[in-house]
Amino acid sequence: MPLDSNIDPATHKFNLVGTRPLRPDGVDKVTGRAKFGADANAPGMLVGKILRSPHPHARIRSINTAKAAKLPGVKAIVTAADFKEGKRALRDVLCNVMARGKALYDGHAVAAVAATSASVARKALKLIQVDYEILPHVTDVDEAMKPGAPLLHDDMITAHVDPAPKKPSNVAARCEFGHGDPEVGFKQADVVIERSFRTEATHQGYIEPHACLASMGMDGQGELWVCTQGHYMVRNTCAALLGMDVSKLRVTASEIGGGFGGKTTVFIEPVALALSRKAGKPVKIVMSREEVFRASGPTSSSSMDVKIGVTKAGRITGALAEIRMQGGAFAGAPVELGAMSAFACYDLEHVKSVGWDVVTNRPKQAAYRAPGAPMVAFAVESVLDELARKIGMDPIELRLKNAAKEGTQSSYGPKYNRIGLRQCLEATRNHPHYTAPLGPNEGRGVAAGFWFNFGGQTCVSLNINIDGTVALAVGTPDIGGSRASMCMIAAEELGIPYDKVRAIVADTSSLGYNDISEGSRVTFSTGLATIQAARDAIGKLCARAAKTWGISPEAVVWENGHAKPSSPNAGDFAPLSLADIAKKAGNTGGPIAGHFEVNADGAGVSFAIHLADAAVDPETGRVQIKRYTVIQDAGKAVHPSYVEGQFQGGAVQGIGWALNEEYVYGKDGRLQNAGFLDYRIPVASDLPMIDTVIVEVPNPGHPYGVRGVGETSIVPPLAAIANAVSAAADVRLTELPMSPPRVLKAIDGKAAGKARR
Amino acid sequence: MVQVKLSGSFKQAAGRAEVEVEAANIHQLLTRLGQDHPKLKPMLDRGVAVAIDGQIYRDDQFRPIPAGSEVFLLPRLAGG
């Protein structure tokens, strides 16, 4: 859907778009009235609990549920045998939901119970006897790739390698992107730096654990209330795993207490449905925090080698990256996206990135904000920072000299159309933060980041109510303020006040299919569909006015919320407001509604630059972020406060990833820190105010020029902070998280090196 | 005829960096690519995106391909 030809977002005067009205869900959320996943209840509801493997890798010889089944209050027990082994595409999802043959990680579900109380359910879990044959395990990505590593899947033959390997391994696939020949580029360089980097797995850290309530009737019809980023995906996946018709399962999305990509798949939902089907009663499952850590999807850990060459004049002549990511026990680490985005910020003649998707005995990774991109940006932007120091060039100047622009052939393939990287770099250079003085033991880091942004299947209905208010039904769960933005967009198009529109997230039986709220797609694609649904309704409103006046519909225009004759020749009629037309709708043709269904493609890519000031305590290695600024292209910010919130949220999650957060596995392959006490996410007292600058370079693929903003903001922080810490400590940090022991070790290593010299 | 540019794994599978296909839209392009280059077929089945003049299309298979446009085959993308 192209940019409206009559709208130049830079100069167009919107009435509501670009303003900051109050959020429609705010009062509910601060007063506790909002209903989240665990708030759903039903008469006769049972409690579901899941038995999880204590072993990282074990063959399941047998599961004996007889004793548990006899416990009074136990109403149903399910294992993998209760799920339909259907299409191959869903095999991994099914095996992750309930282990089949082997337990592949500490926390892997092996059986589940529904009982009349939580205590009975817990007792029943203890009575289930699982006979395990413990197998050797591997949790490290580099170890898992070695010949002789414990093998997770006997049939895993590395894809996209020619000739195909003859033996199975833990490497699911190889990918490669780029053009030119980096070796030629390195020969043209004055300085070449090659370094290796590692990042640990981090969890999305959403505050609300996974929760759902399933109710299956004797007639095979089911309902599910669930906290998810995509209730249509939940419906389709559960129906397939349980062998149901899609139409027999109705799914309602609750309010969501954070997702960040981690709620784009199913974990407990098919289990709750299977238990409910067996018990004949509703079953609620709520994950504990420990289960969230052990058994829902963190992001991948990575190991990377990056080599970049530059001339003394600051031109990058060659760039090469080799990226290895483990995505847990099943194929699907986001290494392809990481490899594609590695050098996407730059205009390069010789560039290549190679990725390896590796399986290990860890929980199956799930998407996490710009999956794959932050860790690769950490490596690439760290090397660029070092190169800038080596040639004595300002780091923004180096990036400006190489920045991709309209017409640049991207490192992942196609040429860019209109993009805003250069504008972001210039805004950073002009920001007072960039030249502010630094204190003792402080360093400043800068880094660039790129993300694709996506569209996807989208369906919107807009109903005109009898009093001239509007009910807007969307199918994308609101994970970032989309109901406010959609109300603004509908009101903008219809020419009515913001508070006359109310948006709801409709259930799966009320609206056509909608893709998941992921890929920074909602404001772009649901917004686009809302614009078109409103225009569809306006066409019908004008037709009603035309009927009322007895003139042709073509002779009616819509202006400022009113139907008007298009010219004096059309007739002399007093304008009819939306409320006037709505009031008479029952007698002029019935209800008035606008609809739109679309494959929303054309989401514009986006870029961000982050500036971080870090103070390093040389005695303890503790890092404090003293100042932080995000500069990002939003295309057109519909609700700037929400856009700023996305910028800030990405930066904060990135700060946690850079400094504290990591999955720690013991030698026994068990997760050592499955709780927020030991897995430390940043809290307000750890952080400075995150400053933001919204850059607006319109996306040519959207009527208002909107670009997604939710993910790009987590791409640069790991690198920006690493560059700041490296500057402050005067030693290059190449492993995340930069926790105090690791930073101290680097400082001591540097001192020891100097002493030796 | 549409000139389709391939890089990385696609290039490796097809054995060259550019292939020519008779296609008016993305659906025809993908169907014929799979017929002409069987080694690409599993990758196409797994899901791909097509960039036309820099705009990435994941789903819209009936998107017309204007004559002379730059067409790139990409893996299907997903986000968080």
Kindly describe this structure.
The complex is a heterodimer of chains A (757) and B (80). With 757 residues, chain A is an alpha+beta fold. Chain A has a domain at 26-34 and 455-600: 2-Layer Sandwich (Aldehyde Oxidoreductase, domain 4). Chain A is built from 21 helices and 26 strands. In chain A, the strands form 6 sheets. Chain A has a 7-stranded mixed sheet with strand order 3-5-1-12-9-10-11, sandwiched between helices. In chain A, helix 10 (335-341) packs parallel to helix 11 and helix 19 packs across helix 20. Chain A is globular, with a radius of gyration of 28 Å. The N and C termini of chain A lie far apart (63 Å). The mean pLDDT of chain A is 96. Chain B is an alpha+beta fold. Chain B is built from 3 helices and 5 strands, in the order E-H-E-H-H-E-E-E. Chain B has a 5-stranded mixed sheet with strand order 2-1-5-3-4. In chain B, a hairpin with a 2-residue loop joins strand 3 (48-52) and strand 4. Chain B is globular. The interface between A and B is large, with 46 and 27 residues.
Write the layout of secondary structure elements.
The complex is a heterodimer of chains A (757) and B (80).
Chain A: H1 26-31, E1 46-52, E2 58-64, H2 66-70, E3 74-78, H3 91-97, E4 102-103, E5 109-115, H4 118-127, E6 129-134, H5 141-145, E7 171-179, H6 182-187, E8 191-199, E9 211-216, E10 222-226, H7 231-242, E11 249-253, H8 269-279, E12 283-286, H9 289-295, E13 301-310, E14 316-326, H10 335-341, E15 351-358, H11 373-391, H12 395-402, H13 421-429, H14 432-435, E16 442-451, E17 456-464, E18 470-474, H15 482-494, E19 501-505, H16 522-549, E20 556-559, E21 562-565, E22 576-577, H17 578-583, H18 585-588, E23 592-600, E24 606-616, E25 623-633, H19 640-659, E26 690-695, H20 717-729, H21 740-756
Helix pairs in contact in A: 7-8, 10-11, 11-20, 15-16, 19-20
Chain B: E1 2-5, H1 8-14, E2 18-21, H2 26-36, H3 41-46, E3 48-52, E4 55-57, E5 71-75
Parallel strand pairs in B: 1-5
Antiparallel strand pairs in B: 1-2, 3-4, 3-5
